[in-house]
Amino acid sequence: RLASVTTVGSAIDYKKGGSHFGRLRRAMSLLRLLHAAPFGTFARAYAPFARDRFVDDFMYAPEMLEPLMRRAIWASAFTWISGRVLLELSTTFEPRGFRGRDGVLWERELPKIALPLLVVAGSRDLQCPPLAARATFDAVRVLDKRFVLAEGLGHFDLLLSRKAEREVFPAISSFLERS
After folding, report:
1. Which residues contact 166 (CB under 8 A, 6 or more apart)?
2. Which of 60, 103, 110, 149 is disulfide-compatible with 156, CB 3.0–4.6 A?
3. Which long-range contacts (CB under 8 A, 24 or more apart) does 163-168 make?
4. Is 54 in contact with 151 (CB distance < 8 Å)?
5. Rounded to whole angstroms, how far apart are CA atoms 49 and 70?
6. pLDDT value of position 88
């Protein structure tokens, strides 16, 4: 049994807030053709060149991570991604929002959550913008919930930066201790 729910850089509907994942939406139809996308292979090839470019901004706020950490993320944090998983994730851009392979629309289920909820979002997260995370937070009707906006943080740096050690982890720890 779960005692509480904590999400970090996560939402059910990525259309809200202008996620940059939306730029990839046209490619989503190709996912039906893929058994797996070699994202890890591409990421490792890119690792030596990781700089403050769009693709880096998409993953994290570059100034929040040392260059070695940025390269390490690209070199080791990714693997091949199943085409079925990518296809399922692409439903977050459909009019009715995210749905599992079983067809369940997750947004409709959010009001049923009866556990304490913590939602953490980064103010510079281009994958899961704060407005998307906030919309998921707002859809959960439980009274015991908390929204934390980590100023200046992107997606991966929500958990991998020094600022996360000072601000995000204490918020998560405090929430878990009282839940």
Report:
1. none
2. 60
3. 163/64, 168/8, 168/120
4. no
5. 10
6. 82
Residues 64, 154: contact at Cβ < 8 Å? yes
> What does the pLDDT read at residue 32?
62
Return averaged pLDDT per consecutive 10 residues of the chain, 179 residues in all. Answer: 94 76 62 76 86 82 92 90 80 80 89 96 94 94 97 96 96 95
**Token pair 């009282």 is at which residue?**
178
Cα–Cα dist 138/85, whole Å: 26
What gap in Å lies between CA 32 and CA 39, rounded to an integer? 16
127 in Cβ contact with 97 (< 8 Å): no
Count Cα neighbours of 129 within 13 Å in the Cβ-side half-sphere: 14
Rounded-to-integer distance, Cα 40 and Cα 90, Å: 19
What distances in angstroms separate CA 83 from CA 24, 129, 140, one per listed residue? 14, 24, 30
* DSSP-assigned beta bridge partners for residue 8: 120
Give the HSE-up count for residue 66: Cα atoms under 13 Å, Cβ half-sphere: 4
Q: pTM for the whole thing?
A: 0.87
Element containing residue 46 per DSSP (H, E): helix 39-46
Residue 158 in tokens = 């929500």
